[in-house]
TrEMBL record:
<keyword id="KW-1133">Transmembrane helix</keyword>
<dbReference type="GO" id="GO:0043209">
    <property type="term" value="C:myelin sheath"/>
</dbReference>
<keyword id="KW-0472">Membrane</keyword>
<feature type="transmembrane region" description="Helical">
    <location>
        <begin position="25"/>
        <end position="47"/>
    </location>
</feature>
<dbReference type="Pfam" id="PF01284">
    <property type="entry name" value="MARVEL"/>
</dbReference>
<dbReference type="GO" id="GO:0042552">
    <property type="term" value="P:myelination"/>
</dbReference>
<feature type="transmembrane region" description="Helical">
    <location>
        <begin position="98"/>
        <end position="119"/>
    </location>
</feature>
<dbReference type="GO" id="GO:0019911">
    <property type="term" value="F:structural constituent of myelin sheath"/>
</dbReference>
<dbReference type="InterPro" id="IPR050578">
    <property type="entry name" value="MARVEL-CKLF_proteins"/>
</dbReference>
<keyword id="KW-1003">Cell membrane</keyword>
<feature type="domain" description="MARVEL">
    <location>
        <begin position="1"/>
        <end position="123"/>
    </location>
</feature>
<dbReference type="InterPro" id="IPR013295">
    <property type="entry name" value="MAL"/>
</dbReference>
<keyword id="KW-0812">Transmembrane</keyword>
<comment type="similarity">
    <text>Belongs to the MAL family.</text>
</comment>
<protein>
    <recommendedName>
        <fullName>Plasmolipin</fullName>
    </recommendedName>
</protein>
<feature type="transmembrane region" description="Helical">
    <location>
        <begin position="59"/>
        <end position="86"/>
    </location>
</feature>
<dbReference type="InterPro" id="IPR008253">
    <property type="entry name" value="Marvel"/>
</dbReference>
Length: 138
């Protein structure tokens, strides 16, 4: 979900005259960087490459990644929302920037939820009844 929403933020900002406003450069950087990073992380799990790098503490890596993404998307959301001016000289720029603010808020929330679940996985709080039965008797 963050990949799709992040791509929407990226596309909405890119469709405006973002180069005239420095604050949208930050929003573009955050959305592009985390879109690519999330895609690479997704491909790592899809291809099960994490099994080849067994020395890497993947639950901790996911927790740190999601926490950093949440914090940086908070700054991108606030920057994008503050920079939207209803008196823009081009109405479609206002609409796209307002929509980008909304979607950056959604991305921020999805990364925040992912951080919560990554924290639970890192602490081992996400076990279900079947796995606890196996570990109790092993």
């Amino acid at each position: 979900a963050p990949q799709v929403l992040g791509l929407v933020v990226w596309a909405l900002i890119a469709a405006t005259t973002y180069h005239l406003h420095a604050e949208y450069g930050w929003v573009m950087f955050v959305s592009i960087f985390f879109w690519i990073a999330t895609l690479l992380l997704f491909m790592t799990y899809l291809l099960q490459l994490q099994l080849k790098f067994y020395a890497v503490p993947w639950p901790l890596v996911l927790l740190i990644f999601n926490a950093v993404a949440t914090v940086l998307y908070i700054t991108a959301f606030v920057t994008c929302a503050v920079a939207v001016h209803p008196t823009s000289w081009r109405q479609w720029d206002y609409n796209r920037r307002a929509a980008a603010s909304f979607f950056s808020c959604l991305v921020m929330i999805t990364y925040g939820v992912s951080t919560f679940f990554s924290f639970r996985a890192w602490k081992g709080l996400g076990s279900n009844a079947a796995t606890s039965q196996v570990t109790d008797h092993a």
